[in-house]
Specification:
With 373 residues, the chain is of the alpha+beta class. A hairpin with a 7-residue loop joins strand 14 and strand 15. The protein contains 8 helices and 20 strands. Helix 7 crosses helix 8. The strands form 4 sheets. Strands 5, 6, 12, 13, 14, 15, 16 and 17 form an 8-stranded mixed β-sheet that branches. Strands 1, 2, 8, 9, 10 and 19 form a 6-stranded mixed β-sheet that branches. It has a domain of 216 residues: FAD/NAD(P)-binding domain, CATH 3.50.50.60. The structure holds flavin-adenine dinucleotide. Flavin-adenine dinucleotide (FAD) binds next to helix 1, strand 2, strand 3, strand 12 and strand 17.
Length: 373
């Protein structure tokens, strides 16, 4: 017993929103999985997630969607405004909702509970990731393990020495997140307003009625809570009626980056790539990482040498496009030179005038386009 080696298929390091779901999805596929996290409790997270149609189906398939006790709010319409173009851009999909808004914390608690019940989650474990190598046996809580594959899902840890370095786009940005009650129904409409100093998103919040919304304002400029409140009141009093804010505004750092290919590990979620929250797609892209991984297990043996490189080939293009697009659009709005203004005007006009472009945009936002399969 003393020298026993516990043989597993997967080790997942990090049981955040993506690592925990990766472990649960692979366990459902009958793989022997161990997931570890350095923290015992889930991190304090007051954010909401705009879950796109593809991710909702994924959660339904895992049997998780039915577990929410707060009421997810459907997004039926998206309104985009800026300070360059006179008319707003409207995105409406008649066939199905474009997304659903849920609480990060609730999802995280549901999945972690399932993993604890399955006895595949160990917390308070802080391994030195830079020294883990596949060939080595790993000691975790005095037991010796061997794993066929190691997945790193520790969030936006750009300081990892392992493998190739990250490409870091811009830093110094923060997202300010809060909630408000309003007199009028939000009509299941999500808003994105590109302001001079950063984008402001307002989304329906999970709630028993349609009179609560959440906001996300991202900027690299200093701004007081009072200034954020007055900006939202100015923009939303007409549509939402009188507004009463929750006291606290939560602040989250924004670190857009992309990790390069690593032959030893599979990176998922924010460890692989983190994008500006303007698109509300970071976690949705993490779900696509899990879907790609699950599909690969049906096509390749876990010890196949090309497994990791095929995974990165399938996930890199979309990651680069999202990272590039979200970072560029922010840059263009924050630096309104004649050339960037003209590009924004042309793009905006194209989306207003051409239905097929709007449909591609909607499909992409819903996670319905797979660039490489
Ligand atoms: C304001 C804001 C709003 C957002 N809104 C949306 C949205 O509407 N839709 C959307 O799709 N995305 C959204 N995102 C992005 C989304 O929140 C992230 O992509 C997602 O939370 C990333 O999950 P993750 O599991 O990769 O990382 P995390 O949730 O950060 O989890 C990392 C986990 O790893 C653990 N860990 C860290 N280091 C170690 C270690 N050395 N060993 C073991 N464990 C470790 C941590 O304890 C943690 O549990 C938003 C982001 C922001 C900032």
């Amino acid at each position: 017993m003393k020298n026993k080696i516990f043989k597993y298929d997967f080790l997942i390091v990090g049981a955040g929103l993506i690592g925990a779901l990766t472990a649960f999805a692979l366990h459902k596929k009958n793989y022997k999985v161990l997931v570890i996290d350095k923290n015992n409790d889930i991190l304090k997270d007051e954010r909401t997630l705009a879950v796109n149609a593809n991710s909702k189906e994924f959660l339904e398939h895992l049997g998780i969607w039915a577990n929410f006790s707060s009421k997810p709010q459907i997004i039926k319409k998206i309104v985009i405004k800026d300070n360059i173009n006179p008319t707003p851009l409207l995105f409406i999909n008649k066939n199905e909702p474009m997304g659903n808004v849920i609480f990060n914390r609730e999802l995280h608690e549901i999945v972690r509970k399932k993993l604890l019940n399955l006895k595949v989650l160990k917390t308070n474990i802080d391994l030195d990731i830079d020294h883990i190598r596949l060939s080595k046996k790993l000691k975790i809580n005095k037991k010796t393990y061997s794993f066929k594959k190691i997945i790193i899902s520790i969030g936006k840890n750009i300081n990892l020495k392992t493998g190739q370095k990250s490409l870091i786009f811009d830093s110094g940005y923060y997202s300010h997140v809060g909630f408000f009650i309003h007199k009028n129904d939000h009509k299941n409409t999500a808003y994105e307003i590109f302001k001079k100093d950063g984008p402001l998103a307002v989304l329906p919040s999970p709630y028993f009625n349609k009179k609560k919304s959440t906001f996300i304002y991202s900027s690299n400029k200093k701004i007081s809570n009072a200034e954020i409140h007055s900006m939202i009141k100015k923009d939303f009093r007409l549509s939402h009626g009188s507004i009463v804010f929750d006291k606290t505004i939560y602040k989250y750092p924004v670190i857009p980056h992309l990790k390069k290919y690593d032959k030893n590990f599979i990176y998922t979620g924010d460890t692989l790539r983190s994008i500006h929250p303007v698109a509300g797609q970071g976690w949705n892209l993490g779900i696509k990482d899990i879907q790609t991984l699950c599909k690969l297990t049906e096509q390749y043996q876990l010890d196949d040498k090309s497994f990791n490189s095929v995974y990165y080939a399938r996930r890199m293009i979309e990651s680069i496009i999202y990272l590039g697009f979200t970072s560029l659009i922010n840059y263009a709005y924050e630096n309104p030179q004649p050339i960037s203004k003209s590009i924004l005007k042309v793009g905006y006009k194209g989306l207003i005038n051409f239905k097929f472009l709007r449909e591609i945009f909607i499909k992409q936002a819903m996670g319905r386009i797979n660039l490489i399969d």
